[in-house]
Amino acid sequence: MAAGSAVLAQRPLRAAETPAAKPATVGAEAGTLWAAAPVLLNPAPDGVSVVCALRQPATGWVEYGETAALGRRADARSNGFLAFEDKALAFRLEGLRPGTTYHYRVHAAAVAFNPSGRRAERGATETTATRSFRTLDPGAATARLTVWNDTHENKATVRALAARHRELPGDVLVWNGDVTNDIVSDELLLDEYLNPGGEAFAATVPYFLGRGNHDVRGRAARRLGQYVPGPGGRYFHTFRQGPVACLVLDTGEDKPDATPAYAGLNDFAALRREQRAWLARAIQDPVFATAPFRIACLHIPLVWENPVPENWLKVWGGFKGWVCEDGREQWQDLLEQAGVRLVISGHTHHPAWFPPRAGRSFGQLIGGGPLPAQATTIRIDADTRELRFAVENLERKVLFQDTLKA
Length: 406
Hints:
Blueprint: E1 7-12, E2 39-44, E3 47-53, E4 58-65, E5 72-78, E6 81-82, E7 88-94, E8 101-113, E9 120-127, E10 131-134, E11 143-148, H1 155-167, E12 172-175, H2 186-194, E13 207-209, H3 224-227, E14 237-241, E15 244-248, H4 268-282, H5 286-289, E16 293-297, H6 310-316, H7 325-338, E17 342-345, E18 352-354, E19 363-366, E20 376-382, E21 386-393, E22 398-405
Parallel strand pairs: 11-12, 12-13, 15-16, 16-17, 17-19
Antiparallel strand pairs: 1-5, 2-3, 3-7, 4-5, 4-8, 5-6, 8-9, 8-10, 11-20, 14-15, 18-19, 20-21, 21-22
Helix pairs in contact: 4-7
């Protein structure tokens, strides 16, 4: 079941439904059911999704509240059924208050059907540790964002990024594409997007996934949205935290849709055109348009002004695929019209910063690559007067930094 796709029932808990709390841990949960710690996904001022990877088929619910006493329950309901999933349980908590801390834990019980498939038996309930998160707040005085990119299944890199994220957690994480090499199976999908490196990477700070070109490749790529959907089922959207409004765009593949290896299964050119029409409307939304700082996250950069590596030139004969030429043609005029100051990308595995210049009013910032020696964290700190960004490697050396004034 896709996160947040079901109708949810949310109600006060009865006393019998509230087992004793357990402390939070860094990695996977104890017990036989949990394959990973809970993941908070697609935060909003009034809600968040909670996704839990499973080791066996189970049903479950989320217990949550504004204090450690919790007191409310959310179920995933669809056509009279409560949640029962083989690989991951997903819930959407709704009706929350902006900028508010909520405590939560997930309960689940294994369910097994007899050989005839007609009769089910329910096992004992297992409960995750109790954790907390904070909802987004468009009216907040400050914003702190973290951006990762191009981890490509490198567990050592993800563990180091997660450790730094725990030290400087911020308000939200944007994973800006190429989480995997290719999504070849459901097992890999669940492992890399919900349990990367065995880390509880998004159990307290929610994340948005921005798709990269490797996130749309492989036999199981079409099932990504079953477990890690974008808001509203799309990987292009906006969000706002305090003075920062962010566009998340989906650049799709880095090769033409007619490339033989795609076997005629792709039409990302149409998706980029669809996003142009959507973008023209989205930038008019007062929540976005009134933000002191407007930025964008998209996997394949729109700008590259350094030499392209020789091996890429041999394959492509130029910049094709190194930048998203079609995305630039479809979106740049609207990004300029919207007053976007900063575009954040990955893809090249070569961190770079191209400041604004004549003919391009936004700066292009690019993160690093999958190896520990290449990987970067991008941090954004903003108030109503200025936005500061830094690109930092795993040795905590700042590679690029700058300040934008409102």
